[in-house]
Amino acid sequence: MNSHILLALALVLVLEGLGPMLYPRAWKKMILAMTHLPENTLRRFGGALVVAGIVIYYMLRKTIG
């Protein structure tokens, strides 16, 4: 596996862990609020995150080399 992918995965894990580590109550409230959202809204939100991630990846890849 490419080392860049592993570094990106490590960064995702760090960022995902910051919320529950620093703000556990707010994080739980946000998760509970998300359970009440329609599935279509969650899919759109997830899709937007995936597209944003791909765009950032290709922009950085082109810039960094």
TrEMBL record:
Keywords: Membrane, Transmembrane, Transmembrane helix. The lineage of its organism: Bacteria, Pseudomonadati, Pseudomonadota, Gammaproteobacteria, Enterobacterales. This is DUF2065 domain-containing protein. The chain crosses the membrane at residues 41-60. InterPro entries: DUF2065. It comes from the Bacteria. The keyword Membrane applies.
